[in-house]
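>> received
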Amino acid sequence: MPHALLFSGPAGVGKATAAREVAKALLCAGGPAAYCGSCGPCRRVDAGTHSDLYILAPQAQKASITVEEIRDISRRLYESPMEGSRKAAIIDPADLMTVGAQNALLKTLEEPPDDTTIILIAENTDALLPTVRSRCRRVDFRRLAVEEVEDFLASQGVDKENARQIAVLSDGSFGAALELVDGTVAVSRRELAGAVMRATRKDVSALTERIASGDKPARKSLKDKRQETRALLAVLESFVVDAMRVAARSDVRTNTDMVAEISSFAEAVGLDALSALEKEVSDGIIVLGQYADVRLVAMRIVGAFAAANESANTQIEAS
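>> returned
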């Protein structure tokens, strides 16, 4: 087992779950070769109470992992294991380490304790120093195909029609798909995406705040808010893509319960403006994965929809 692993890929595709499974295998009472997933140490990893597993993540509302936090976890990794013969550490998201924190981690990566495995989880690996990346074995996770998410949802008992729609809106993420199975989450996101689609300039500030704050904002970390905003933008993108199909004389495929509203939007705005909006939303999804500011991304996208709607209204009034 390498002393350091780098799990890279988009949000919601299983990086953190895989990291915990690796930690369970390393700390299992039977050892990695006889990993059971059900012994006392494995259950404590699941519960987050294993004494030899260290998980480091930014505290709620904090935007980075600091030098002090890395120094603290590094010190602990050089201590003897408390329960078994090995230790494991998970840093998630590692791409939120400050440059100073990454430099502090380098010494541990260069001279790792023999009994320790460190797992870094990152969406934006370009935010990691080359010296950090080069000292880790990289494992890439990809965004899942619609059919893979659909099959997964079907295995969870979701009916075929809903499974297909949720899979399309999930942005290739099992985590997002499971959230959308909760009807209240799906309805809330679709209502907000619909409000953005109808936005005018007077709505920009309020809609930006709703998107940036998310549901129960005080209980959400910055990482959670980014993931929630990406999921919302995936819903909004599906509206725009359906509208582009209508404008191109095709049919609504994903949001079949909103044919009238999407068709009206498509007719008013036109294919060229829809193409520009689709690019705006798609770019927003990408930069959120690179830790762009949620509020600025939201304001830019809502502003683009407001401008497109007002331009369409002006043309209608002029005619």
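>> Residues 200 and 309 are 7 Å apart (CA to CA).
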